[in-house]
Amino acid sequence: MNLALGKFSVENFSRYSRKFTSVEVELKSYLLWDARDRQRFRTWIGKKEIGVIPRISLRTSRSREEFRDLMSAAREEFEGRFRFFLIASGRKRFDQEQDLRSRKEFSISIQNEGVDLCFEWGEEDTPMTTSWIPAAFPKASMMLDLDCHWKFREKVPQAIHFKLHGWHPERWMRRYGETLIRKFQKRMGLDPEAILILAHSGRIEEAPEFA
């Protein structure tokens, strides 16, 4: 299982498990880090040979130039450690008008860019609400929540990666525990290319159990 640490921040340098082979960073927030912290991060991922998954929210209204600038900055910052751009919804429910506008600007921004994209489903997403993605980006992969969306797995023809946000109908999941972890491992299957991003509160402490 390829584990990635979600929601990476500068505090995670001292709380990092070797079980992670990649880290997810909020790209907009990362570019606001102090220059010394960004340099420290680049040196750190190089020494540890860690992959980087920059995350961009598609639900934030941006122009095509802004999207291009973000992607260009990520390629320059992370160079050979880059895995793919994670494109997130950032909302539970969709604002259709804003969605369509953002999709158009984003689609135009990456024309002829040749970048690897993975679209992260929102909590209430289904194959129907994400049906526009394979039509617009046929080579893109999908990222499903392993607890919330796993029942749709067979209905998604694209390559799939997974994430655990901590979503639960009754409470926020700080820890999943051994029983659920074993269940999730079976749900993921044996795809050697699949990545699981841990984004729940106890992600660092539970990394050894997932691995």
Task: Tag the structure with descriptive keywords.
single chain, globular, 19% strand, eight-stranded parallel beta barrel, 8 strands, 211 residues, alpha/beta
Description:
This protein has 211 residues and is an alpha/beta fold. Helix content is 34%, strand content 19%. It has helices spanning 27-30, 35-48, 64-78, 96-109, 132-136, 177-188, 203-210, and strands at residues 2-5, 20-26, 51-57, 85-88, 117-120, 141-145, 160-164, 195-198. Helix 3 (64-78) crosses helix 4.
Q: Short description, anyone?
A:
The chain is of the alpha/beta class and 211 residues long.
Question: How is the secondary structure organized here?
Answer:
Elements (H helix, E strand, L loop, with lengths): L1 E4 L14 E7 H4 L4 H14 L2 E7 L6 H15 L6 E4 L7 H14 L7 E4 L11 H5 L4 E5 L14 E5 L12 H12 L6 E4 L4 H8 L1
Parallel strand pairs: 1-2, 1-8, 2-3, 3-4, 4-5, 5-6, 6-7, 7-8
Helix pairs in contact: 3-4
Shape: globular
Backbone CA Rg: 17 Å
Structural class: alpha/beta
What's the rounded overall pLDDT mean?
Answer: 86
Main beta sheet strand tally, sense and closure: 8 strands, parallel, barrel
Q: Helix-strand pattern, N to C?
A: EEHHEHEHEHEEHEH
Helix content: 25-40%
Poorly predicted ranges (pLDDT <50, ≥5 residues)? Answer: none
Would you count the extended β strands for me? Answer: 8
Sequence of strands across the biggest β-sheet: 1-2-3-4-5-6-7-8
Secondary structure tally, helices: 7
CA(first)-CA(last) distance: 6 Å
Strand content: 15-25%
